[in-house]
Amino acid sequence: MNWGSVGEFLAMGGYAGYVWWSYGMAAACIALEIAALIARGRQARRESENTAGG
Amino acid sequence: MNWFKYSSPQTFYPLAGRLVPLFYVTAAMLAAAGIYIGFFVAPTDAQQGEAYRIIFIHVPAAWMSMFIYVVMAMWAGIGLAFNTRLSSMMASALAPTGALMTFIALWTGALWGKPMWGTWWVWDARLTSELILLFLYIGFMSLQASIDDPRRADKAGAVIALVGVINVPIIYFSVKWWNTLHQGASVSLTRSPSMATTMLTGMLIMVFAFWFYSIAAALMRVRCIILERERNSDWVKQMNGPRT
Fold first, then answer.
1. Predicted complex ipTM exceeds 0.90
2. What residue in A sits closest to B238 (Cα-Cα)?
3. A8 touching B, CB under 8 A?
4. pLDDT tens across B115-134, in order?
5. Which residue range(s) make up the domain with A46?
6. Among B35, B54, B136, B155, whose Cα sits 20 to 30 Å from the Cα of A24?
7. A2 lies in some domain
8. Is B39–A2 a contact, with Cβ atoms under 8 angstroms apart?
9. Alpha-carbon torsion A42, A45, A46, A47, what sign?
């Protein structure tokens, strides 16, 4: 185990900003992509159903 | 099993729908394992302290950014050569995820470069060629978006994708060919890795996590593209059921 406490873990040996901004941005990008894909899928299904109905 | 059966959008659409959750779940489990190893098993680096832990995001994203481009160019090329609709749709579905991986690689690289090199960015071979990769993805997407006829957009995109593929070996070998701030390859096929085993294990697990995620996202996007392009076809109308 590398960390004595939660505080030590969060401090990342003084590199907290660099490490957490890396992980945070990657997580945010992935979350945004998934959200965008869900929205696009919904839209595509709705439009295809409307076309079929028309 | 007849693989060609799945080369038409009509049969691939439901297959992709079944595969998407599998790939997402696998990616999530791999990411959980990789992050656990990355933070709690892998030791502190002797030279870089804890800052090196950015590697568990940076290297997988950078590898995927190049790999996705090659796969995208391959599908685009197949679509161009054989006029197969689904291949071109796969190429278009991969581009945004590839661009995202490129962005993550550049972003984490900057955050790693600042504490280690003292600068967020340098115009050296590795960093510049990776930035060009981002522009190639954006160029591919904006060109396709600017052409109304999907089949013509496929062909125009394929030309950019295939020409741009030359950039991928340039990125990969840039650290050998030119003097650069960026360190050389930590992992290569010809010699043993220059990393502790647990660091390497964590990194490789994260590579697979990113890999499965990319497949899941690309399959999800190709389903959107199939529906958007084929909504007037009979199979989509049948799938949606008769309406009066």
1. yes
2. A52
3. no
4. 999 999 999 899 999 999 99
5. 17-53
6. B136
7. no
8. yes
9. positive
